Structures are given as C-alpha cells and as structure tokens.
From TrEMBL:
This is HAD family hydrolase. SUPFAM superfamilies: HAD-like. GO terms for molecular function: phosphoglycolate phosphatase activity. Keywords: Hydrolase. Pfam families: HAD_2 (PF13419). InterPro entries: HAD-like_hydrolase_sf, HAD-like_sf, HAD-SF_hydro_IA, HAD_2, HAD_sf, PGP-like_dom2. GO terms for biological process: DNA repair. GO terms for cellular component: cytosol.
Length: 214
C-alpha cells in the first residue's frame, strides 16, 4: 500500500520558478510607493504567506489603506509591468504526469489569491492534474493549518495519509500543525539550512526527486 493517498503542493517556488519575479515585483512596488526597498532575503522570507501577512511583515507600521494600495500596486506590477519570466520548473509536468498515472490525489495550497491561482493553472495547462486547491483568500494564511484542514476534509483523507510539498518553512510548519508529513524543496524561496529547521521528512533538489520518497 502507498504511504500517502494525497499529495498537496505549494505553487510558487515548488511547481513554478517564480521567486525571481516575486522579488522584482515587490522591489518595484516599494519604489513606486516611495517605501524602503526590501532586501531579496526579506522578500524570500515572506513568500508563501498571504499578501496581507507578507506586507505586514515587510512594513509593520502600515495602515489598512496603505496595505490595500500596496496590494493593488503589486498586482499591477505582477500582471502588467514586470517582464521577469516565471516558467514552470522543467520537471514539473513530468512529475505531475507520473503521479497521476500512479493514482495519487493531487492538490494545491498556495499563498496566491484565487484569481491568481486560476490564471496560472489556465496558462500552464496544469489545472487538469489537481483534484482540489485552496488559496490565500479562502483560508487563514500559512503557517496556520486551515488550508490543509479544508483540503483534507473536502477529499476525505486522514492527515497521516497526506503529504505536503513546499519550498518554505511556512509550508512545512503548516503541515506539522495539521498532523501531516512534509517534504521541502531546496530550489525555491528558502535555503536547505532554513528548511532543516522545520524538520521535514526529506529535502529534495529537483521536482522528480519527490518520487524517491513516496
């Protein structure tokens, strides 16, 4: 019997090579809004959180109105102004195809908003692989386990039969809080050393490396 029935993936930095674009867009947003430009590491640290929580970490003295203006400017940068490419990792399609052939249930738990997730699922053609998904505007922000708990309930899977795969400690800590195993990926937002702090089951260096831990 397989160890897991359900595999839940983060999106940015796990399936899609979008970390560079997120960093550039946040830097450009700060410039436009005349705010201190965050370091690349500071932006990497908040990737995976919902946008509100991310902005509160970067600019803790902001007001509700300022956070709303920042969200709108970031959206403008990401969708229209910034040209940094954000392709799928080259092994992502092969990984998902293999997992589907092995009859795993697949899901996404992301810090993106629903509109952003639907856009990338449509543009990449990957929507057909996933049985369910949760976005940042449908649940409490990572690392709270709400997102995973909703997916487990929807798909009727016990926590011990599900695995979270993500590139940040927010993903790994979310899984631990939900009673799930987790695997970190070293090619995304957080370093291997940072991921080790959250004690994942394993850390992989390529998407297809996941197959060795199932």
């Amino acid at each position: 019997m397989k160890a897991y029935e359900l595999l839940i993936f983060d999106w940015d930095g796990t399936l899609m090579d979008s970390i560079g674009k997120i960093v550039r867009c946040m830097e450009n947003t700060a410039r436009v809004m005349a705010l201190p430009i965050p370091s690349e590491q500071a932006v990497r640290d908040i990737i995976g959180l919902s946008m509100t929580e991310a902005l509160q970490c970067l600019y803790p003295a902001g007001s509700v109105g300022e956070y709303q203006a920042l969200r709108e400017e970031y959206k403008q940068q990401f969708l229209q102004l910034d040209t940094t490419p954000s392709p799928l990792f080259s092994e992502t399609p092969a990984l998902l195809s293999q997992l589907r052939s092995e009859k795993y249930l697949l899901a996404v738990a992301t810090g993106k908003a629903r509109a952003g997730l639907e856009r990338v699922l449509r543009e990449t053609g990957l929507g057909e692989f996933f049985h369910a998904s949760r976005s940042a505007d449908e649940a409490r922000s990572k690392p709270h386990p709400d997102m995973l708990q909703q997916l487990l309930a929807e798909l009727k899977i016990a926590p011990e039969r599900a695995l979270m795969v993500g590139d940040s400690v927010h993903d790994l800590n979310m899984a631990a809080s939900a009673g799930m195993d987790a695997i970190g990926v070293s090619y995304g937002a957080h370093s291997r050393e940072r991921l080790h702090e959250a004690a994942p089951k394993a850390i992989i260096d390529t998407p297809l490396g996941l197959l060795h831990h199932l």
